[in-house]
Write a structure and sequence with these properties.
Order of helices and strands: EHEEHHEH
Number of strands: 4
CATH class: Alpha Beta
Number of helices: 4
Length: 100
């Protein structure tokens, strides 16, 4: 199942402005790769950032939102950001369902 993870932080907690956040950020990719399987994350599909908006968008293939919640805590995303986890579907799958 696909989920969008939307993380937003305040400018004072931005890795550009905060030493603790910078350390978390620099370790994030490694932690995400090593912790994904532990939290039933099948695949990290995409990870995008809007630097000036202080917002991250992560697309994950996972079993459920509770596992993603624990994943965000374990890797440090929730230490600096407010996290919203939303189930999402590929446009083509929705279009296929509607055309039946």
């Amino acid at each position: 199942m696909l989920f969008g993870v939307f993380a937003v932080h305040d400018p004072d907690l931005c890795p550009l402005n905060n030493v603790k956040s910078k350390k978390i950020f620099l370790d994030l990719q490694t932690k995400m790769k090593t912790d994904a399987k532990k939290h039933n994350i099948s695949k990290i599909i995409a990870f995008y950032m809007s630097v000036l908006e202080h917002q991250w968008t992560i697309i994950l293939d996972a079993k459920n939102a509770h596992d993603i919640e624990q994943f965000c805590i374990a890797v440090g995303i929730s230490a600096t950001s407010t996290v919203k986890i939303v189930p999402i579907k590929d446009f083509r799958d929705v279009a296929k369902t509607l055309s039946r």
